[in-house]
Amino acid sequence: MNKNFINCLCITTTLSLFSAFNSFSQQLERHEDGVYSNQHITGVGSSTVVYHLTSSLGTTILAELENYLESMNAITQVDVNGLDISIQFKESTTNEMIYPFIQRMEMLYINRNPKTR
């Protein structure tokens, strides 16, 4: 009985560790940087990224957007020139790194419903 208990314990432990390892490896799965690219962005790979607007935004929305971006710790400077928003980061960028910033910026300010402005 003792041998059967130890074998059962070993099998249970092995299955448990395999399940945990499999779950952990899925969390570490990485995608290529191109998956996170955005057609409106240029300058990825440097510390200065430019977002090109397709249409102009109101001055109050641009001011709100500029304040929002400048409040981020990773961003040192924001300049708005016509339809271009220049964003200076503390370090060189990748598409994956700036993806959350750009997605949130588009959601809150650029693609926002005009009725809620």
Give me a quick take on this structure.
Strands 1-2-4-3 form a four-stranded antiparallel β-sheet, covered by helices on one side. The chain is built from three helices and four strands.
Question: Which helices and strands appear, and what pairs or packs with what?
Answer:
Blueprint: H1 2-27, E1 41-42, E2 48-52, H2 59-70, E3 75-81, E4 84-89, H3 95-110
Helix pairs in contact: 2-3
Please describe what this structure looks like:
The chain is of the alpha+beta class. The chain contains three helices and four strands. The protein has helices at residues 2-27, 59-70, 95-110; strands spanning 41-42, 48-52, 75-81, 84-89. It has a four-stranded antiparallel sheet, with helices on one face. The N and C termini lie far apart (73 Å). The model has no long low-confidence stretch (mean pLDDT 80).
**Percentage of helical residues?**
40-55%
Oligomeric state, counting identical vs distinct chains: single chain
Strand order of the largest sheet: 1-2-4-3
Low-confidence segments: none
Q: What general outline do the C-alpha atoms trace?
A: elongated
Salient structural properties:
117 residues, 4 strands, alpha+beta, single chain, 46% helix
